[in-house]
Design a protein that fits this description.
five-stranded antiparallel beta sheet; globular; seven-stranded mixed beta sheet; 4 helices; mainly beta; Jelly Rolls
Length: 480
């Protein structure tokens, strides 16, 4: 699990005066329908992820939970677009490759998908303008438009020796969902396992003349709002590591927060706050991280020049941020309208791949271990004249995503995805005894298993011979 520390937002203390009356609008059960059609190209640098990504979709008739209100904390709510936010840097084919090294006091660059430290990470295209956030988190996302990959860093910095270094690296598909999945469960450097570009207010959007941002927003909450258990819910696939000990609220990471449809935005003086409030009424915002002392922080790209309290403290803007705090509620929805206007269902499901090829791997026979390649989501074997046989008895072949774990007595189907003659095999054990075994499966072959209670996994990867080979597979629930 990724070891993370809370985002350390600092803002205006609550001891400063409020000069405006705070009014709470009543919550309702159905959200106003937005029928505006916009022309957008999805899966791009400025509009990342698929049209049906939850980031780019609005809920239909969300149900409001009025049982909990985000509490006050040390500071006022904020729009974070400086040292604790992130930049989104466009990489193109002409940009050179760069090797990223570990921080000098760390054994490697932490890869949360592999759950291992890597000696280096090579990024094929590195823009010249990369500038990580200067706050403690050091976030930066590189959006490679040639490979359609978002490279996401935590604690990225450039040393005096000219080398780039980082504590954590993760990646996601630019054309994908922008969220983790049960197999590749960590796809970005935020605590909820998402890239910071998910939900980020972009520089190009701030003054585009629209009444709202055409995507959900990204928020962090502090400890007295965040839930210790569950620490995360769908669509999130992880949470801050200290959630159980530090959190005391009711809102898990991954939760969707919204303002009710009758929340009055017409009186909001600040154009950017009015636009944000309109967005929260229509798309909402997902909780993707925790911070230290700010009731909620909404993230905007560094350089977007949203300056609510410049050149001096603005009590009217502070009052509106407070009114938004009082109005925000956790909601649930199963139906959404995608960015291209199509209605779809989004619910947690176990009918998705839950199997990862991450290690740790143990060599059983052959000359050398195959290695897990996170970008290929496969074990990669070198050319060999004798088969390489290795297994992973750690039970980490399943990522442990709470809403997707195989349930007892369900039928799961393992399907082999291999090249070069590679094979995959899955054994299930209970009390250290093998109770189910697929046998070795070549590419395209599959086998079914009825999942026992309290089962643990032993995954095997067997190389081909005579050339390089790869081994991967999918484990998906099917009808009994």
């Amino acid at each position: 699990m990724l070891t993370r520390f809370p985002t350390n937002h600092r803002g205006w203390k609550y001891s400063l005066p409020l000069a405006a009356t705070i009014v709470l609008a009543a919550c309702a059960q159905a959200q106003t329908t937005d029928t505006t059609t916009t022309t957008r190209t999805y899966g791009t640098h400025t509009t990342p992820f698929a049209a049906n990504s939850l980031w780019n979709s609005r809920p239909v008739n969300p149900v409001f939970d009025n049982s909990f209100v985000i509490p006050k904390s040390l500071y006022y709510p904020s729009i974070s677009n400086t040292v604790y936010s992130t930049g989104a840097f466009k990489a193109v084919a002409s940009d050179p490759a760069v090797t990223v090294y570990p921080l000098t006091d760390q054994p490697g660059v932490w890869d949360p998908d592999a759950e291992a430290n890597r000696p280096t990470v090579v990024i094929p295209h590195w823009p010249a303008d990369v500038a990580p956030a200067t706050g403690g988190d050091g976030h930066a996302d590189i959006i490679d438009t040639t490979t359609n990959i978002v490279h996401s860093f935590w604690k990225l910095q450039k040393g005096t020796d000219g080398k780039w270094r980082a504590r954590t690296y993760a990646w996601t598909k630019l054309t994908g969902s922008g969220w983790g999945d049960p197999a590749h469960y960590y796809q970005g450097a935020r605590a909820a396992a998402v890239p910071p570009t998910g939900g980020l207010i972009r520089k190009e959007e701030v003054n585009d003349g629209d009444t709202m941002f055409r995507h959900a927003l990204a928020l962090s909450l502090t400890f007295n709002a965040l839930s210790p258990n569950p620490a995360y819910v769908y669509p999130a696939t992880s949470a801050d590591v200290y959630a159980a000990n530090r959190n005391s609220g009711k809102i898990p990471e991954g939760a969707l927060l919204m303002l009710p449809p009758d929340y009055d935005t017409s009186t909001i003086v600040s154009p950017i706050l009015r636009k944000i409030a309109n967005t929260l009424k229509t798309y909402g915002g997902y909780v993707i991280d925790q911070n230290d002392g700010t009731p909620y922080a909404i993230y905007a790209e560094i350089g977007s020049n949203i300056a609510l309290h410049q050149p001096k403290w603005d009590p009217v803007a502070a009052a509106e941020l407070e009114r938004i705090r009082l109005g925000l509620r956790m909601v649930k929805a199963t139906q959404f309208i995608s960015g291209d206007g199509k209605q779809f269902t989004s619910v947690p499901t176990t009918a998705v791949n839950t199997l990862s090829m991450r290690g740790p791997w143990v060599l059983k026979s052959g000359p050398t271990l195959g290695t897990f390649d996170t970008l290929r989501q496969a074990v990669v074997f070198p050319s060999t004249t004798v088969p390489i046989v290795q297994n992973n008895p750690s039970n980490r072949s399943l990522g442990g995503v709470s809403w997707a774990l195989p349930a007892a007595n369900t039928t799961q189907r393992l399907t082999a995805i291999t090249t070069g003659g590679g094979k995959i095999r899955l054994q299930l054990t209970v009390d250290n005894k093998v109770v189910a075994d697929t046998g070795e499966l070549a590419n395209g072959a599959s086998a079914r298993l009825v999942w026992p209670a309290n089962a643990k996994t032993v995954l095997w990867a067997i190389s081909g011979t005579g050339g390089p080979s790869t081994v991967s597979g999918t484990l998906v629930r099917v009808a009994n």
